[in-house]
Design a protein that fits this description.
The complex is a heterodimer. In chain A, strands 6-5-4-3-2-1-13-12-11-10-9-8-7 form a 13-stranded antiparallel β-sheet, with helices on one face. Helix content of chain A is about 5%, strand content about 50%. In chain A, a hairpin with a 5-residue loop joins strand 5 and strand 6. The longest helix of chain A has 9 residues. By secondary structure, chain A is mainly β. Chain A has a single domain, classed as outer membrane lipoprotein receptor (LolB), chain A. Chain B has 5 domains: about 210 residues, Multidrug efflux transporter AcrB transmembrane fold (Up-down Bundle), CATH 1.20.1640; about 120 residues, no CATH class; about 80 residues, no CATH class; about 170 residues, Multidrug efflux transporter AcrB transmembrane fold; about 170 residues, no CATH class. The chains are: A mainly beta, B alpha+beta. The interface between A and B is large, with 42 and 34 residues. Strand 6 of chain A pairs parallel with strand 7 of chain B, so a sheet runs across the interface.
Chain lengths: ~250, ~900
């Protein structure tokens, strides 16, 4: 029942850089070190396939990196609701989140619930947050193919902590160490998978323009499409103030 | 028949061998017999209401059939109780989310312990000290077969492993969909402009509940519980006088597939293992378990008692070893055959089916008495000549009568196949087959046995008894009947007409009852717990009232939700107590809770918001799980369809008028609600209703229509058969008199005494006709035989009663006592069935011995023997010859 701010749908789709390392950990370090933007402005459409319905949601997102590795992100829904979500994410502590309803009412959101769905999609808040490489132990399983690309297949096992997933299988593209597919395991069961498509370089930053999060049992999926994207555009700090939600 | 008896007498050992072989083949089938106590066991699968009910369950889940439990204790609000409650819910949750790795590891560890051989209970527990919930499971399972002390030997450990594996498979099925309770519930608060979703009892990172320990923490928990109005009467209840929270409520919902019985058993076993608080379980899964327990108990109680009763009847009748042994073996065989056959065919014993063994014993003993009576009647004739020749004459004669009685009973039972209720249909088929088995066995086993046993001795004793006590009572009865039908026939007929009129008035008061709770006695724990749960948590049985908004996402419209809210208030309003609705659960509860949270927990905001956009927003940020990805948060599934077009109002039934809710009350509720919605719902909205209680109402409809159908059909068919047997339409019509009167009398008694027509009592008419016709045929056959000898009607009646009266009376005694045993049942309908059957058997006996002759006397009907070929009926349907009636007597 909690609303946690979407850190960055785009950034989160993982990063890239080349290297020669062959252990699982080293491959993931290379992937983690891929360049990130300072700011991002995007508009996206989410198509959620559930039952016999397709629910379409459209939103705009502004994101900016601040000092001390702090990210501030503002998501403004255009349809079907006019909700706005503002998140100040901090390293090593809980995020601050605010919600503005269509009626203009603003509420602070107390804590996050990482295992819950983001606006009824197949993305959990956990999927949308940044990942700390040290939260998992890695093992290279070998080579594999995903979304038509040659990849390293890396297994990530959760260390002690509150992560939603016990295990991930990451498919890291050999050519640039960009993660193109992730298999998510929950309670030791293959739960769902994410695939990144239309991966383009925007201002030197690898960015998937399309991503699909699908349930392992084939019962549903959410497609995410970036319609407009601009990196490193100048943004006022005040845009990300709580007062700006009014 | 002649040839068959000839064969039996020539090859008695072969016959006994065949019978024994068939018994050996069929008996193991009994072990495959299963019990089925659900309404589904009866209802036709193609019934449109039943199909709709299933469709609704597919959409909204099986929301109406949850297991509900009240947890109470005088120390409910203590940290110690919370620790125990935490253990209890942890045990339950293992059946909700299956952790394969953990469970496999447990089995492996247990296997390694078992490999070590004999171990003490204490040491076994120590081995699993680091896994307390598994330790508790081991303790529970051990206590199911031995005490939790001392040493467990290899056999014990093997048994334990089997039980643990059973639990493993149950966990793997993940039958529990949700557990709603104070320790597992979530809520949302919006105090101090901060929106916070939380568990009433928070959890640590490794999923352990953080239990309230100090007084302050417990008080804070109580406040959390009381904050949300939706929780009262749902997950807690107050004492009406002190206002204190005295009970926690637990609702366990199941997934809509598979057999719930095993998981419900497991849950009850878990609940029983906790002694620091009291649990009161209820709900359909619990009722079904109790029915199952009682079915088992009944079956094991009935059979020995009925057997004992018939042994006594045999003994007092024949006073000889063969007179007890041969019929006893015959009817026991018949019972094993039919139960074994049912087991092999995969048929399940329903609450009704439990009466089949008793019926088989009663019917089988009646046939055996007929046959042995004949043997002793012909004893002198057999003694005077060659034994086998004598037996041939005697056995052929009586076997024909038994065959005829069997065939008519078979047909009467088979008319139940016209019922739309599967359970009744199956009962009819198997009882009919059982009758044929009984005829076959008794007319094979007894002649074969008599052929092998030496022909000596007991006739003296038999005749002595015959001439003493038996004659005194039986002959006096017959004399009375003769006098009544010959001298006072007008009075008899007048009394009968008066009784029929009184009975018809009674019939007009007859009510139908199909609710399963009514099976149990008033003070049965299942009834008392149902009352308790009704008072505290608003009931256990749910009506699904579906309101269609007429458009996709229409449920999100505030106008629609406000209409629904006003309707639910009407449902539980004081002036509508007659609806017996104790509580309603509706989708809008979630919206109201969100709205209150968004308005700083102001209780005045616990209502449906006026703005459409607020509702849309609440649903967007209500980030619950949607595990099956059907477009609804899992918590919403019981209340709204995945198009958000139709809202499912779950209205719980509970007795609000001080009397149990039966079919009539449910019918009233459904009609009143339908009328209200028809009048008040806006034109663009529509409604339908379904649910388990509605299915019960449908069952009642089928019982009434099926009853009329099978009644008419069996009367017509029996009438035709008797007409064809005697080549006299008059005989057919006469045959219907005693049976019709007995049936009318039975329904009249039921109506006057307030005994309701239910699944069990609904088959009485068919049995009455099926068994009652035997007496009538017996009488008519002898009467016709005497007609030829030129006796006057009076003399003929007297002679007929003297000859056939005794056999009729003795078989009736066996049947009456046999059915009387059913009063030991745990189920009210079965008890009433037993009493009514015994009463009706008396009525059919009086019908055959008094009313039938009185009717003959008053109408002056004579059944002069005609050759089949002399009548148009006989020319085409000479079934009298088939049964050898022409040669009889």
């Amino acid at each position: 029942m909690k609303v946690r701010v979407l850190l960055s749908i785009v950034i989160v789709m993982f990063l890239c850089q080349s290297c020669f390392a062959l252990t699982g950990r080293e491959i993931m370090e290379k992937s983690d070190a891929l360049p990130e933007p300072q700011t991002a402005e995007s508009s996206a459409v989410m198509n959620i396939y559930k039952g016999n319905r397709v629910l379409e949601k459209e939103f705009e997102m502004l994101a900016k990196k601040f000092e001390n590795d702090e990210d501030k992100i503002l998501i403004s829904f255009i349809r079907p609701t006019k909700i706005k979500l503002l998140t100040h994410s901090h390293t090593g502590q809980d995020d601050d989140q605010w919600l503005r309803l269509s009626s203009g009412k603003i509420k602070r959101i107390a804590a996050s619930d990482k295992g819950k769905a983001f606006v009824n999609s197949h993305f959990y808040y956990e999927d949308l947050g940044s990942r700390n490489i040290d939260e998992y132990d890695y093992k290279l399983l070998g080579d594999g193919k995903a979304v038509g690309e040659d990849c390293y297949k890396v297994e990530a096992i959760k260390k002690e902590g509150t992560k939603v997933y016990d295990k991930l299988i990451l498919y890291v593209r050999k050519s640039d160490y960009f993660v193109v597919r992730v298999d998510f395991y929950r309670k030791n069961k293959f739960h769902k998978y994410l695939e990144n498509f239309e991966i383009k370089k925007v201002e030197g930053i690898l960015t998937p323009y399309s991503a699909v999060m699908a349930l392992a049992d084939g019962k549903g999926k959410t497609e995410l499409k970036i319609e407009k994207l601009e990196y490193n555009k100048k943004m006022k700090d005040s845009t990300f103030n709580k007062e700006a939600l009014r | 028949m002649n040839r068959y008896i000839d064969f039996v007498l020539r090859w008695p050992k072969l016959i006994l061998f065949i019978l024994a072989a068939l018994t050996i083949i069929l008996t193991p089938g009994i072990r495959q017999l299963e019990f089925d106590n659900s309404v589904e066991a009866f209802l036709p699968k193609d019934d449109h209401e039943y199909r709709y009910y299933n469709e609704i369950r597919d959409i909204y889940g099986d929301s109406g059939r949850f297991l509900i439990m009240a947890i109470s204790d005088e120390n409910l609000w203590s940290s110690e109780t919370f620790v125990e409650l935490d253990n209890f819910f942890t045990d339950l949750e293992e059946y909700k989310d299956f952790d394969e790795t953990r469970e496999r590891d447990r089995i492996e560890r247990l296997d390694s312990v078992i490999a070590g051989g004999k171990i003490s209970y204490g040491d076994l527990m120590l081995k699993f000290k680091d896994d307390p919930s598994f330790g508790r499971l081991l303790g529970r399972k051990i206590e199911t077969f031995r005490s939790a002390t001392g040493y467990l030997d290899r056999a014990d450990l093997k048994k334990l492993r089997k039980k643990i594996l059973h639990s493993y498979h149950l966990k793997n099925l993940e039958m529990i969909d949700d557990i709603i309770s104070p320790l597992t519930a979530q809520d949302i608060t919006g105090e101090k402009d901060t929106l916070e979703a939380y568990y009433l009892i928070e959890k640590t990172d490794d999923d352990k509940r953080i239990l309230p320990q100090t007084k302050g923490e417990i008080e804070a928990f109580r406040k959390k519980l009381e904050r949300n109005p939706a929780f009262e009467g749902g997950i807690y209840s107050r004492d009406p006088e002190s206002g204190e929270i005295t009970d926690f409520g637990v609702i366990i919902k199941f997934i809509n597939k598979g057999d719930r019985n095993p998981i419900a058993y497991e849950i009850l076993e878990i609940a029983d293992s906790y002694h620091s608080f009291q649990t009161t379980p209820q709900g359909m899964p619990v009722v079904y378990i109790w029915i199952n327990k009682y079915l088992h108990r009944d079956l094991f109680t009935f059979i020995p008692i009925v057997l004992l009763v018939v042994i006594m009847v045999f003994y007092f009748n024949f006073r000889s070893f063969r007179g007890v042994f041969l019929p006893f073996v015959s009817l026991t065989m018949g019972m094993f055959w039919i139960l074994g056959l049912m087991g092999y065919l995969g048929c399940k014993i329903t609450a009704l089916g439990v009466s089949i063994p008793v019926l088989m014993i009663a019917v089988g003993s009646s046939y055996s008495i007929h046959i042995l009576n004949q043997y002793y009647a012909d004893f002198q004739m057999i003694s005077d000549g060659e034994k086998i020749d004598g037996l041939r004459v005697s056995m052929t004669h009586i076997s024909l009568t038994v065959l005829l009685a069997g065939v008519t009973t078979f047909i009467a039972f088979m008319t139940l196949v016209t019922s739309r209720l599967t359970g009744i249909r199956e009962w009819g088929i198997f009882s009919a087959i059982g009758v044929i088995f009984a005829v076959f066995i008794s007319s094979s086993m007894i002649p074969a046995g008599l052929a092998l046993l030496p022909h000596k001795g007991s006739s003296v004793a038999f005749r002595r008894i015959k001439k003493s006590e038996r004659v005194k009572i039986v002959d006096r009865t017959i004399a009375l009947m003769t006098k009544g039908s010959v001298t006072h026939y007008r009075r008899v007929i007048a009394i009968v007409i008066l009784l029929i009129i009184i009975s018809f008035i009674g019939i007009s008061r007859l009510k139908v009852e199909t609710t399963f709770l009514s099976y149990f006695k008033e003070e049965d724990p299942i009834r008392t717990s149902a009352r308790l749960i009704g008072e505290k948590f608003g009931g256990t049985r749910c009506l699904n009232i579906l309101i269609d908004s007429g458009e996709i996402d229409g449920v999100k419209n505030p106008d629609f939700l406000m209409t629904v809210e006003s309707f639910r208030r009407w449902l539980v309003a004081e002036e509508n107590r007659d609806l017996n609705i104790g509580r309603t659960d509706v989708f809008s509860d979630y919206i109201k809770t969100m709205h209150m949270a968004m308005n700083n927990d102001d209780i005045a905001s616990y209502k449906v918001p006026e703005n459409h956009s607020d509702i849309i927003d609440y649903l967007e940020i209500y980030a619950g799980e949607d595990e099956n990805s059907d477009g609804r948060i899992d918590e919403f599934e019981p209340y709204v369809d995945n198009d958000f077009r139709t809202c499912d109002i779950l209205a719980r039934l509970c007795q609000r008028q001080g009397r149990p809710i039966g079919t009539a009350e449910i019918n009233h509720t459904v009609h009143k609600i339908s009328n209200y919605l028809r009048e008040t719902l806006p034109d663009n909205y529509a409604f339908t209703m379904t649910g388990h209680p509605m299915i019960n109402v449908k069952l009642a409809y089928y019982i009434v229509t099926g009853q009329l159908k099978s009644l008419l059909l069996s009367l017509v068919v029996i009438g035709i058969i008797v007409t064809l047997l005697f080549y006299h339409l008059k005989a057919g019509l006469l045959a219907l008199i005693p049976m019709s009167i007995a049936v009318i009398f039975n329904f009249g008694i039921m109506g006057w005494l307030g005994i309701k027509l239910d699944l069990a009592t609904s088959i009485i008419a068919a049995i009455t006709i099926g068994i009652g016709v035997d007496d009538t045929i017996h009488f008519l056959n002898t009467f016709r035989h005497n007609s030829e000898k030129g006796y006057s009607i009076d003399e003929n009646i007297a002679r007929t009663l003297a000859v056939s009266g005794k056999a009729i009376i003795f078989t009736s005694i066996a049947l009456i006592f046999g059915f009387s045993v059913l009063v030991t049942s745990s189920f009210i309908p079965v008890i009433l069935f037993g009493i009514l059957m015994a009463t009706t058997m008396i009525a059919t006996t009086i019908g055959a011995l008094l009313i039938l002759p009185a009717a003959i006397k008053i109408t002056g009907i004579e059944l002069v023997r005609r050759k089949g070929s002399e009548t148009w009926i006989g020319r085409y349907f000479d079934i009298g010859r088939l049964f050898g009636l022409e040669e009889e007597n």
